[in-house]
Amino acid sequence: MPYQSPISPGRSWYEDTAGPRPEYPALDGDRNCDVVIIGGGFTGLSAAAHLAKAGTNVVLIEAYRFGDGASGRNGGQLGTGQRAWAEDLEAEYGLSRAKALFDLAEEAKAHLIEFAAANQIDIDYMPGQLSVAHKPRYVDDYKAHADIVASRFSYPHIAFMDAKETAERLGSTAYFGGTRDTGTGHVHPMKLVIGTARVAAQAGAQLFEGTPSTGIVSAGGKVRVSTPKGTVTAQKCLIAVNAYGGTLEPVSAAHIMPIGSFIGATVPLGADSKVLPGGESVDDSRFVVRYFRKSRDGRLLFGGREVYGVNDPKDIHIHIRRQIVELYPALKDIEITHGWGGYVGITVPRKPFVREVMPNVISAGGYSGHGVMLSNFFGKLYAETVAGNRDRLKLIEDLKIPPFPGGRRFRTPLLFLALNWFALRDRI
């Protein structure tokens, strides 16, 4: 029987095409180290790799298997800058700080591609991203955005597309304009997970799967992380569980909310398909964003149905097909070979959450759908912090991230109501 993630619904196309997926042992016995990491997704594995390469004694524990959560199951799009548009960051923080945040994210993009190349990780990188407007009134914003990032943020790779060009590049007339970004692209996330774990292990990191954390205590200059069969004692701890933290640590839980996002993969569309002839990935202007792309072998990977809270849908294929047909009516009978989901962590302002949540314990997450490149880079920034340079991580730590309203009891229903209102607004 194929392996099924116990924390994420469906079996993904990524799992079936990633090649060998090594298994790592469970922790059995106590360990002492410099840094203990909780969570085996992009953030944790990247931190483990960079720390171990620097000679740090690091132990990483993962409750299930590496990549079982969002890191191994996401849309694979890198994007550009932060999740918030550069001009919106400028309005909130001023140009200097907004540019520093934009440049940090651009370094994250370059780092991911360079890390994969340097470590011979084939991540199926494909260039290009289209960002498109699903309502006519948004088109002017996209046109202005292209000008702003070029003139004020020194990023010349985004060009405006009118409705005609948008239809040609999409193979669909469902959108009214947008931008084309030639300075970014999309990847196979599970291959990146597997490769990053390999790099970390080869550098000397001690990696354990099937090892949940049952508690974290920081006292007397030490951090103790308990597990079912042993305790890890360290100088420092990184919590990198993002949407899958549950009640492990209350500050992170108050600021990061899980959202279920679901993807379907079709059979290869064929060389004569008019869908995305340039091979770009796509995201649209909906609050409940639709995101899609073609794989290296020509399949349409389409994501778009978000669920707020943690109840899985009964049939992913039905909902994904409905959204595909809205954009591509000719695909109404296309075979969908895979349907899967995972939970991404969002924050109230859709900006990442990084905080020292107790002495010597830093938590990172809340990437809000922009985590493929940011999470990997935050692992590197955490390693820099351990080495004594916290300046760049501090740029993210200082972002204003309020907790979700309503406390633990009411925040999920309140968010459900609010975000369903936004979903309704998308359709009006």
UniProtKB/TrEMBL annotation:
It is an enzyme of class 1 (oxidoreductase). This is FAD-binding oxidoreductase. Transmembrane segments: none annotated. It comes from Mesorhizobium huakuii. GO terms for molecular function: oxidoreductase activity. Residues 34-384 form the FAD dependent oxidoreductase domain. Keywords: Oxidoreductase. Its EC number is 1.-.-.-. PANTHER family: FAD DEPENDENT OXIDOREDUCTASE DOMAIN-CONTAINING PROTEIN, SARCOSINE DEHYDROGENASE-RELATED.
